[in-house]
Amino acid sequence: MMYHESVYSCRAAPVIRRDGTAGTAQSGQGMNMDKNERSRVILDLLQRDHKVDVNELAERFHTSQMTVRRDLNHLAEQYNIVRTHGGAELGDLSIVRMISFDEERIEHREQKHAIARKAAEFVRSGQRIYLDSGSTTRILLDYLDPSIKAVLVCNHLGVAQKALTFPDLSVIMLGGDVIRVSNCSSGPVAEEQIQKYSLDAAFISAAAIGTDGGLFDGFSPEARFKHQLFKVAKTVYLMADSTKINTYDLNHFGHLTQIGTLITDSGIDRDGENLMKRYGVRIVKV
Fold it and tell me: How far apart are CA 71 and CA 244, in angstroms?
């Protein structure tokens, strides 16, 4: 299957335009970017430089300092960045979309539970499946037939713990570096280990699905790991509520051409449906 790589410039921050084409935000160029596009540039700059300045961002985006401050405040509510008087800082860390791992702050709960309930119907006895650490995929086990006999591979401590309550589920928890904020194992060990398995199905999430069909995650180690799943899973189910469609996040990990089925809510609009049709993705609405 075709795989689309994101290309990042070392001299200018990347921009994904509304039509899905890639470009760069250069000083002196007039860029009419919306909030989503500005946010992605800001996150990339933070990942690269570990800090950003309000004045410099306002000049880069050709917008007001107040608009930039609102953008930074919004990002600080979702990611592990710290607002400062003149901008924001990351520190010597990778950017993590914290809201994805904070159970009390997870949004669209009703849709996520409906999606998880439907996804559980696609799990069959005798299968070898992978269940990722996304806020929607994590709750699939709440709706799984308790008598099912299968092999479940995962990299999230909470998923493994819950899976062990199923008497006939064989559970494989991947090794590697366990990230405290996410309770996930990742890194070279986990990436190498997953390549040794042959999976019937993988159930994955995405922080964003771009207008170009790109799949994005808010956590770079998880994004690198997800890239390996496409090599070993016969079928990939993408579990994502409709608010994730036609948006972008920082870490690119795949493309809709690598997805068999999208399980989403009834809020998906015509543009979202056309996007799935363009790349041959079956839609299951709940």
Answer: 18
- Are 255 and 165 found together in one domain? yes
200 shares a domain with 268? yes
In a domain, 4, yes or no: no
| Exposure b/e, 145-181, CB count within 10 A at least 16 = b | eeebebbbbbbbeebbebbeebeebebbbbebebbee
- For residues 7 and 272, what is the distance between their CA atoms, to the nearest angstrom? 24
Instruction: Write down which residue in 46, 66, 95 finishes a domain.
Output: 95
Its domain, for residue 47, covers 13-95
pLDDT (tens digit per residue) in 150-196: 999 999 999 999 999 999 999 999 998 887 767 888 889 999 999 99
Q: Please tell me what DSSP assigns to residue 220.
A: H
pLDDT for 148:
96
Q: How far is CA 227 from CA 42, 87, 190, in A?
A: 24, 33, 12
Residue 23 above 60 pLDDT?
no
Domain count, the chain: 2
pLDDT, tens only, 238-256: 999 999 999 887 789 999 9
Do 107 and 195 have their domain in common? yes
pLDDT at 100: 55
CATH number (domain holding residue 200):
3.40.50.1360
- Which residues are 203's β-sheet partners? 131, 237
Neighbours of 50 (CB within 10 A): 15
